[in-house]
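Incident log, structure service

09:12 report received: a user says their structure output differs between two submissions of the same chain.
09:20 pulled the input from the user's history:
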Amino acid sequence: MDYISTRGGAPALDFEGATLAGLASDGGLYLPRHWPRFSEGEIAAMAGLPYAELATRVMLPFVEGSLTEEELRALCQQAYGRFSHDAVTPLVQLDEQQWLLELFHGPTLAFKDVALQLLGLLFETFLSRRKSNLTIIGATSGDTGSAAIDAVAGREGVDIFMLHPRGRVSEVQRRQMTTVRAPNVHNIAIEGSFDDAQAMVKRMFGDQGMTSRFNIGAVNSINWARLMAQVVYYFAAALQLGAPHRQVAFSVPTGNFGDVFAGYVSAQMGLPVAQLIVATNVNDILHRALSQGDYSTGIVTPTATPSMDIQISSNFERLLFDAGGRDGKALAEQMRGFEASKAMQLTNTQREGAAGLFTSARADGEEVLQALRWAYDHAGEMIDPHTAVGLHAARTSEIDRAIPVVTLATAHPAKFPEAVERATGIRPALPSRVGDLFAREEAYTELPGEYEAVRDFVSQHASPAA
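09:34 re-ran on a clean worker, output below:
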């Protein structure tokens, strides 16, 4: 399997190369040259497998040429052995149609752990082969940072620099990043929004002065290996609900489009996905793009769902490429126009390519609170506000009642205690395994929202490529 850029101007890479590169040299994102596809019989044979074995079966076609089946299985067993629930991503029933897929049983209580625990091991494996160093540059609106830091803290050959918008992540999210004391971990709080931080990260990948000295890699969902690992839990949920003989729909709270794009990939691989509901908060560029074809940025509005306070969804480019006919040259021109004007209209081909599988919905603050209350009052389940955005979208969808709807529960409710308490009257407690979080000492660097300041900090603290 090799990987090509959505913008058509970068050389194809194998899985190892694409994992270490993160972003393509032409500014595009890597995708497999073709989608592997399982037969109904092959999917049916996956039912009842332990999660690490299921992950090995689902991901094996993507790593061909870079990892053997035995190597991949060993990495999966190590990555998912740290989860607090033996099912790794258990399903919970809410009513006759609505289900929750709990993705927060990893070490940092968020869905990012499912991918990043594996990605940290992939980095270590590939870097040891090459005897080189990797400088990870990341931006986080909350959960990616802590999950990535946990995955690579103390690992050989890796330095991580994680940017977060100062004052725009929850206290639990911030502390999960800033209390990790390892010499290869550097937390940076910048003035500005997540989009500002993400723009700096992308700029650094194109900065020849930096890339000539450092091997710069990505842990954000621009890294294909992250999305690949997330595909697995769509299979896990659907198999438990009757796949391949029964269709399943998914509602996905999303800002950067990575988690829901993994659902798209699962459908391309043969999983019977009836519909993917893209659930946004009031920062609704994805809802507007999918419902009206209008991919135009606005002002980021801070909300109780900070991980979704995004106006530029990096992974949407992957869908535009795949659904639009895989014309890298045309997409590169389209994205250049968007980057200059911050506005773009989807082509008819792109809209038609997305229309069969995707729908979208938007939840405001009051609708989020209502979904939180409903889950607690009617099913005894506490959920976090991001999950509530997805549940609102799921419950207001017009999907056939015979088709189960799975909302991805992306974070533990204790990561957002104020919002949960406001809705339910009960303040959720942190699990015992992270219960001393508020007693740990924090360490991070505050920098202005200027690329040069971040670049200089990284230059001073990162290890050169070799």
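09:41 both user submissions now match this output. Likely a transient worker issue. Closing.
09:42 reviewer note: The mean pLDDT is 95. The radius of gyration is 20 Å.
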